[in-house]
Structures are given as C-alpha cells and as structure tokens.
Amino acid sequence: MELSMTARAEAGYTVLEIGGEIDVYTAPQLREELYRLIGAGVTNIVVDLSRVDFIDSSGLGVLAGVLRRLRGVDGTLRLVYSHERLLKIFRITGLDSVFDIYETVDAATGAGQSR
Length: 115
What we know:
Elements: E1 4-10, E2 13-22, H1 27-39, E3 44-55, H2 57-71, E4 76-80, H3 84-93, E5 100-102, H4 105-109
Parallel strand pairs: 2-3, 3-4, 4-5
Antiparallel strand pairs: 1-2
Helix pairs in contact: 1-2
C-alpha cells in the first residue's frame, strides 16, 4: 500500500498528516520526510496517524529515531491517533509512555486554548 503525506503549519507546529500503512516498505519514505522537515529547521512536529491503517516495528523505529533527534535540538514530537488497534501496539511495546499522544490535532497543538 502507498503512503500519503501532507505537511502544513498549524498553531506553531508542523503537522504531518499520514495515510495508509507504515511498514518496512514505506517507513523509509516517512523517515525521509521527517528528516527533511528537521533539516529545514522544523523542531515542533505533530504526526497525525488518524488515517494510518497499520504500523509495524520499522515504522515505530522511525518515530523513535525522530523523537531522539528532535529532543537533541529541544524540539517536540507529538502523535495523534485514537484507533484502538494503534493504541494497542503502542501499549504493548511500552511506547505509549515514551510519546506524547493526543486524540486530535487541535489537542496536540493546543489550538483553541487561551495563551
């Protein structure tokens, strides 16, 4: 399956909306796009996984690597998803305690909150 990715600016974050499956074949595309954003100076990223049907260990590895890289430059990586099948994968691997996880992009970016 093909991976779709669309980036946009929202409330001080770059939101990368992803659709499809993140697996051994598509994870390199995701890594390339996230590293491109970081290379362009983006340090606050929200990865919207709401339209992702599947993620395997290679996809989880990409996200963990990006998180490490962003922490090294005082950046943030926030994930958005609410599908139980993805939540279960993050719980089983213990990554739910590593990543900041939100149910909506607005919640992840703090949009609509008073500042």
